[in-house]
Each structure stands twice: as C-alpha cells, then as structure tokens.
C-alpha cells in the first residue's frame, strides 16, 4: 500500500485525530464489547457455541482495526532526528502470509481433534500465545536497539511491558508444552512419576531461575534508563532462564492437578499479552489480555477451591503421577472387590427408581458418551429417572464432561453440578461410575492422612448400590487407592467403558 495514500487517513501524533482514527477506535470498542459478551455466553452450555462465535467475530474486528492502525505515520516509526533509526517499511505481503499460516495451522486441528484430546489442544494453543508474546518482547528489544531508541511510546512502558512479557510469556510457552506432553501421554510413566517425586529439587531450581530472571530484567531496566544499547544476549538469557523455569514448574505437577495448571497457564498468557500490549501501545492486546488474565485467574481459583487446595499448594506441592497400571487384582491390600456382569448391572438399574451416572475421564477416553445416552434412554423408557453428576474437575479441563455429554445430546437439565446432586445420592438406588476415580474417593472426606483429604467429592458411597465401570484396579491421577471400590455396596464391571455400556444396553433391550 502506498504510504502517501495511507497518510491521508492517518495523521501524526502532533495533529488532531482524523475520521480514520475514530473508525479504528470504534472497531476496537465493538470488538471489546463482543469479547465480553462472548465470554458471558460461555457461562452456560446453551449459549456457549454462540458465545464462541461472537468472541471470534470480535477478534476478527480487532485484527482488522490493528491492521488499519499500522503506524506508518511520518517519522513515527523512526527514532529521533539524527538517531540513525530509520522508518521501517510495512510489508503487507508478510502480514497476509502470517495471517494465512495462522488460519491454516489453527483451523484443521480445532476441527479434527476429538473431545478427549481437547485439553491438550487447549494447552498447545495457549502455549503458542505465550511464545508469541515472548517473541514480541524480543523483537521490541531488537527494534529499539536494546531499549535505546523509542517511537511514539515513552521508554518506560516499552521497557517494563517488554520485560514482563518476556518472562511470563516464556514461562507460559514452555510450561504449556510440558502440560501438552503430559496430557498426550508422551512422557514415560516412570519418568513422570520420578519428576513428581523430584518436586523439591525443581522448586529450589525455580527459585534460582526466578532470581536470575529478575536480576537480568533489573539490569536491562537500569541500562535503558541510562541510555540503553544492551547486547541482545541479555534478552536471550532472560528468555532462556524464564523458559527453563516454565519447564521446571510444570514437570513435577501430577495429573490430578493438570486441569488447574492449564487454567493457570492460560491466565499467565493473558497477562503477558496485556504487558506486550503496553509495550506496543496496542489497546486491543491490553484489553483482550486482561480479559483472558482475569477470567483465567478466576477460573483457576474456583477450580482450586473445588479441590480444597490453594494455588501455591498445587504449584509447589503436586501430587499424582498417573496410573500404575495394576490389574484387577491390584490394590488387594484395601480389601476384596466384588465383580459383576453386564446382565446383573442392567437388572439393578432397570428396577431402580433413580440412577445417577458419574462420568469421568475413562468415559472420555472410551468415547462412551453416546452409549451412555442410549442406556439412559432405555432406562427412562422403563420409568427410571436418570441424572448425571458432574464434578468441577472431572476430566482434564473445566467443563470437559459437560461438553462431552452435550455432544451426545444429553439434556442440559439432567447434568447436575456437585453441590446440586450430592444431596440426591442417599435417595438413589444405583450410582454408576464410568471412568471416574479421585472425584468419588471417600478418603477425601474420611481419611485425614490422605493427600486429597478435604477435597469436595461426589457422595457416591451414600447410594444404596454403586456400580463402577473401570478397565482395572489401577489408581487415578492422584495415585492413591479408592476405598469406594472395596465397599460392601460396590460392584466392579471391568473392561473398556464403551464396551461395558454397550453390553448393558443389550441386556436392557432383552429385559
């Protein structure tokens, strides 16, 4: 685009705002309103899809406004007269290619990824955002000759915003990659357990890395105040130190805490984007980043409360290193388990007044949601009332079970949150637990020595009868035994969740 033509619409900072400035500002305001309205839609399953679309359109408007507001104003991209800092040329082809690459890399995974793998996709996309912010901070350092020459933005915001963005963005990027690897089960189980056991060593290393990062940031800030011009290796060292800290923070965190970690990293990415927005004097990044940071922080706090744990306890006192893979005989020290058959399970539920389905990650892995919906339909045809008990941290990300069941057309009204359903268990004939473990563990309520003691759970053990569908007697992500499996009123149906539910469906049809 010819810069002379563009300058007809965009004035310099020394002249009053033009009509074009007002158009850009109006687009930003509309975009921000759509961000907030879209986020409000995500509070309920019925409005979540619409909320996503609204927020997505808002982001398109924000991108368009940012492109229209590219600062090609005379002299504004250059440094002070005689400083030797030239006005860069805006490469519109490169901008278009970048947008196209982002679309090509972003849409296919989002469309093809199964719901079971959505947590790791969220972690990966979140990490990309943090990495982008870190690169922006690096670019700002290079473009200002080591925080020496500045454009229309005062030195303070550029330096402070860039340094904060570099630290937090790098932590978020590398931490999210580890979260992705853990969720995708790319790490060897023994390695993952050893990483959890080495939590104290990682904590000590993180303290050192944090001090190093802060020391480098302080040096660069002081150097900028004295004229700048620091060597580029200083910012590289800052990014490396913060990146290693990101790895070390997430390495020892067990699977039981991973939903909270994803939410926390998401909040950090938002805050780093806001810091980068301050450095770039970009309103869109500031507002969007603060929205993501605030909402992510609130969600992280709510999830931590749902586990009755503080966020520092999750970050610095992780527990759970994955399943041990024990077979049906595993965990014998806890007592004797009673096995059941699909036929007996079907008979129990068919003659019940109320059945509560408790879904967990095992249901997601087996893709059993449609089979569960069919089973519930057959029970309802027989006059049985069927409800679904949803724990806040069931699955591997917030709302995982809700979205999974909604995908199978389970009515939203049938999905009950923990606080709403817990009073129902003592009036329930049969509770059927499908792939859930830690969120049903009564040790959280009864055993002060348990690492999950105090964590709110679903009161499945209060039901008159409990049927647990599980592949084996292996522990859940907290890595501890569940006394529910050995209770007198509990029977175990071993096997793949979908296969087991399919067998129950066939038995129900035969009754």
From TrEMBL:
Specify whether NAD is a keyword of the entry.
yes
Which residues are in the NADP transhydrogenase beta-like domain? 25-506
Q: Which Gene3D superfamilies match?
A: TPP-binding domain
Q: Please list the reactions this protein catalyses.
A: NAD(+) + NADPH + H(+)(in) = NADH + NADP(+) + H(+)(out)
The record's InterPro entries line, in alphabetical order, gives:
DHS-like_NAD/FAD-binding_dom, NADH_DH_b, PNTB-like
The principal localisation class reads membrane
- Reported EC number(s) for this entry are 7.1.1.1
Gene Ontology cellular component annotations, sorted alphabetically: plasma membrane
Question: How does the protein associate with the membrane?
Answer: Multi-pass membrane protein
Keywords, A to Z? Answer: Cell inner membrane, Cell membrane, Membrane, NAD, NADP, Translocase, Transmembrane, Transmembrane helix
**Where is it localised?**
Cell inner membrane
Q: Which SUPFAM superfamilies does this entry report, sorted A to Z?
A: DHS-like NAD/FAD-binding domain
Entry GO MF terms:
NADP binding; proton-translocating NAD(P)+ transhydrogenase activity
> Which residue windows are transmembrane per the record?
20-40, 52-70, 90-109, 121-139, 159-180, 201-222, 234-253, 260-280, 286-304
What is the top EC class of this enzyme, as a single word? Answer: translocase
Q: Which domain of life is it from?
A: Bacteria
In Pfam terms, one family for this protein is: PNTB
**Any keyword Kinase?**
no
For this chain, the family text in UniProt reads:
Belongs to the PNT beta subunit family.
- Chain's role: The transhydrogenation between NADH and NADP is coupled to respiration and ATP hydrolysis and functions as a proton pump across the membrane.
- The protein here is known as NAD(P) transhydrogenase subunit beta
According to its UniProt entry, this protein's organism is: Dietzia timorensis
């Amino acid at each position: 685009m010819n810069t002379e033509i563009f300058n007809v619409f965009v004035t310099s900072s020394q002249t009053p705002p033009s009509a074009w400035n007002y158009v850009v500002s109006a687009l930003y305001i509309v975009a921000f309103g759509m961000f907030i309205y879209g986020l409000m839609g995500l509070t309920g399953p019925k409005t979540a899809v619409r909320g996503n679309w609204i927020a997505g359109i808002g982001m398109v408007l924000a991108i368009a406004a940012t492109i229209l507001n590219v600062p090609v104003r005379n002299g504004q991209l250059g440094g002070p007269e005689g400083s030797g800092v030239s006005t860069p040329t805006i490469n519109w082809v490169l901008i278009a290619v970048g947008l196209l690459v982002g679309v090509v890399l972003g849409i296919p995974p989002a469309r093809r990824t199964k719901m079971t793998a959505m947590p790791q996709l969220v972690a990966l996309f979140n990490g990309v955002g943090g990495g982008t912010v870190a690169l922006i901070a690096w670019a700002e350092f290079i473009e200002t000759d080591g925080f020496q020459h500045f454009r229309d933005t005062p030195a303070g915001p550029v330096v402070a915003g860039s340094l904060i963005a570099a630290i937090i963005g790098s932590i978020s990027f590398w931490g999210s990659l580890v979260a992705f690897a853990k969720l995708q089960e790319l790490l060897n189980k023994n390695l993952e357990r050893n990483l959890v056991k080495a939590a104290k060593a990682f904590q000590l290393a993180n303290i050192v890395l944090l001090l190093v990062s802060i020391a480098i940031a302080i040096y660069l800030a002081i150097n900028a105040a004295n004229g700048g011009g620091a060597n580029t290796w200083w910012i590289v060292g800052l990014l490396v130190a913060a990146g290693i800290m990101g790895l070390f923070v997430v390495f020892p965190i067990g699977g039981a805490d991973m939903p909270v970690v994803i939410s926390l990293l998401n909040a950090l990415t938002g805050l780093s984007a806001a810091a980068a927005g301050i450095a770039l004097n970009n309103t869109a990044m500031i507002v969007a980043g603060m929205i993501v940071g605030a909402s992510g922080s609130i969600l992280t706090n709510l999830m931590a409360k749902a586990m009755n744990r503080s966020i520092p306890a999750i970050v610095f006192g992780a527990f759970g290193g994955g399943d041990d893979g024990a077979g049906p005989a595993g965990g014998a020290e806890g007592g004797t388990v009673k096995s059941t058959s699909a036929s007996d399970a079907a008979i129990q539920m068919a003659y019940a007044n109320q059945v509560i389905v408790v879904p967990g990650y095992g249901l997601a892995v087996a893709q059993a949601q449609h089979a569960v919906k069919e089973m519930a339909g057959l029970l309802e045809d027989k006059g049985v009332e069927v409800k679904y008990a949803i724990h806040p941290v069931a699955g591997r990300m917030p709302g995982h079970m809700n979205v999974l069941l909604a995908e199978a057309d389970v009515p939203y009204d049938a999905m009950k949150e923990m606080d709403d359903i817990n009073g129902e268990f003592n009036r329930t004939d049969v509770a059927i637990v499908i792939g859930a473990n830690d969120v049903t563990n009564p040790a959280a309520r009864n055993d002060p020595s348990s690492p999950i003691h105090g964590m709110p759970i679903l009161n499945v053990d209060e039901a008159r009868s409990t049927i647990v569908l599980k592949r084996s007697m292996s522990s859940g992500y907290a890595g501890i035994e569940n006394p529910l499996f050995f209770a007198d009123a509990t029977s175990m149906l071993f096997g793949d969740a979908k296969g087991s539910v399919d067998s129950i469906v066939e038995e129900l049809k035969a009754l």
